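Chapter summary example.
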Amino acid sequence: MSDSNRRFEDKTVLITGASAGIGAAAARRFGAEGARLVLAARGRPALESLADELTAAGRDVEVIPTDVGDIDAATRLVEQTVERTGGLDVLVNNAGVNYRGELTQHTPAQLAQIVAVNLSAPIVLCRLALPHLTARQGAIVNVASLAGRIPVVHEATYSATKFGLRAFTIALAEEVKEAGVRASVVSPGPVDTGFIMEDIDTVPDLVFSQPMSSAEEIAELVIECAADGRVERMRPKLGGYLATLGYVFPGLRRALVPMLERKGRAAKQRFIERNK
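The structure predicted for these 276 residues follows.
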């Protein structure tokens, strides 16, 4: 994409989970459209590597290593963003964590971490950012999942957080529109990033029954939501509609799951062979 379409010229965009995958792809896209970037994630080296790449391309970048699951750290993140850049125009809540497998395989602390990072942190960051976003008629984009439209077995806590984040965002969009703030949720299916590929053996076969998207394709949905405020975008669209249908009609979902798992198992094996 050329730099000619600069809808975010001189706008400050804060992205969590920015060091890789969808977050890094979104940073590149916003930067290409003129945004002033604030990148947050837990790992400083990966953030600084991305910042070096973006700075070399002429982008304006600030790096603030942050564990968004810590309320005090989240508070400092918003405060430092405003102090360093003078305001905030777009908040992208992309940070996420998952521990796959049966519930009893994981410690209470791990389960609490999933909730803290995937659901509590976006809610807290939205609350902290809203006064600044209101002042600039800004936008919120929360990255959820198709797992927030239909429950996923062996990812029960993750799925619950994405259901919650989707519901929160849709309700928030109504709540803040009179203030001129836009709130959107992006709901992707499986994405070809380390979030899945580095843990592929534990990913349920059912996940791979849907077409795989790239991080860049999901970043495109994020930037379009930030630009036009559409409440939700999904990819793949058909997968989103089927997920909702399966949620509304659980008997149909149970009937289709064996076929979808067979399809997903074959696709998963192809990805495993590709990555050898």
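To summarize the output: The chain has a mean pLDDT of 91.
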